[in-house]
Amino acid sequence: MSSKFPAHPEQRAVVVTGASSGIGQATAEALAAEGHPVVIGARRLGELQGIAESIRADGGEAHPFHLDLADPDSVARFVDAAQAAVGAVEVVVANAARNQVGAILETAPEELEAVLDVNVGGTHRLISELLPPMIERRRGDVVVVTSDVVTNPRPSMAAYVTSKWGLEGYVRALQMELEGSGVRVSIVRPGPTLTEMGWDWDMARTEAALAEWERWGLVRHDSYMRPGAVARAVAAVVSMPRGAQITSLEIHPEAPVREDD
Questions:
Q1: What count of Cα atoms within 13 Å lies in the side-chain half-sphere of residue 54?
Q2: DSSP calls for 201-255
Q3: Helix runs in the chain, H state only
Q4: How many CB atoms lie within 10 A of CB 92?
Q5: Rounded Cα gap, residues 17 and 69, in angstroms
Q6: Which domains are seen in the chain, by residue range?
Q7: Which residue of the set 97, 160, 162, 197 is catalytic?
Q8: How many angstroms separate the Cα of 238 from the Cα of each of 27, 79, 104, 136, 250?
Q9: What is the pTM of this model?
Q10: CA–CA separation, 5 vs 7, rounded Å?
Q11: Is 160 a catalytic residue?
Q12: CA–CA gap between residue 118 and residue 141 (Å, rounded)
């Protein structure tokens, strides 16, 4: 008796954006270790090439290509290169994001628009290119990495918070539109994670932002997740058997174990 759910091949070609460091890098490494060919994209091609070499040295398959989500031509070139390298793309992990510190009135309209253009517009550009073939094949997974700022908005991150809220609205609508298509769309919503994001912020503005987060009770302890923990969550979403779907998965750092009084 045949299943009404199309079977996935064991080795599914994967695209991961924002893969030059942090969560994207860890996700590419985790999925490659499971035997999936991975295409990794980011603006920093040199870093991507080093990561791809490391994956290959461990026996995996990786293909690095430049990707600027703010540039429609770059997105189109990236998709063409990805399909030429691995064939039909079965899994898309939309992880790339732009962030900046700044309260609402400190954020110029063009700065807000630039963040939205990458985090929401860039995700849409990528999905618009890769989703139609998935629908035609009636199988595929799209995983969109958002942030716990959706459920716990943080002051002094006006553009980032706005973009991640918008991105989750985008995904929720897409989930409804794709119901019954054979393509699953999921949200992975990580809490504080130790990545390179924010390393280039102005120190004074960063300290002011941290003070605001503490004032609002948004910094409950000083533990951060490692990117590999979020990568495992993405891998779990992708590996769900047909007939089931993780629509959203929130993951947070575990608090330090309390010392006995």
A1: 13
A2: S-HHHHHHHHHHHHHTT----S--B-HHHHHHHHHHHHTPPTT----EEEE-PPP
A3: 22-33, 45-57, 72-86, 109-116, 123-137, 158-177, 203-215, 227-238
A4: 27
A5: 9
A6: 14-241 (3.40.50.720)
A7: 160
A8: 11, 20, 36, 19, 15
A9: 0.90
A10: 6
A11: yes
A12: 21
CA 18 to CA 93: how far, in whole Å? Answer: 9
Give the pair of three-digit tokens for residue 193.
Answer: 């994670």
Tens-digit pLDDT profile for the chain (261 aa)? Answer: 344 545 555 689 999 999 999 999 999 999 999 999 999 999 999 999 999 999 999 999 999 999 999 999 999 999 999 999 999 999 999 999 998 888 889 899 999 999 999 999 999 999 999 999 999 999 999 999 999 999 998 888 889 999 999 999 999 999 999 999 999 999 999 988 776 555 565 666 667 767 676 766 677 767 778 999 999 999 999 999 999 999 999 999 888 888 875
